[in-house]
Amino acid sequence: QVQLVESGGGLVQAGGSLRLSCAASGGTFSSYSMGWFRQASGKEREFVATINWSGDSTDYADSVKGRFTISRDNAKNTVYLQMNSLKPEDTAVYYCNAVRTYVNYWGQGTQVTVSS
Q: N or C terminus: which one in the chain shows less Cβ crowding within 10 Å?
């Protein structure tokens, strides 16, 4: 069983930056692909970014390409999401996700609010 704890959310003005962290425990972190998803109020959860186990392959939603960067530190069992040039439409609860064959874990989420 893997536990994921997100942190780093908060209130920021449009154009600002935030760095989210997701600390993992209870499993072999480096065996999981990691991702970030988000869910705005009244909307379905959507994909934001993903990174493979070694960190050499990433993918992003079109809406965040060029503004967000996902990274991981396997020595620290942590995945990050650097968010720059934030927009009000980025406002959502951001969730960390760990996945490998047959298993899928979620964190509790961290709120990001971008004011205009």
A: N
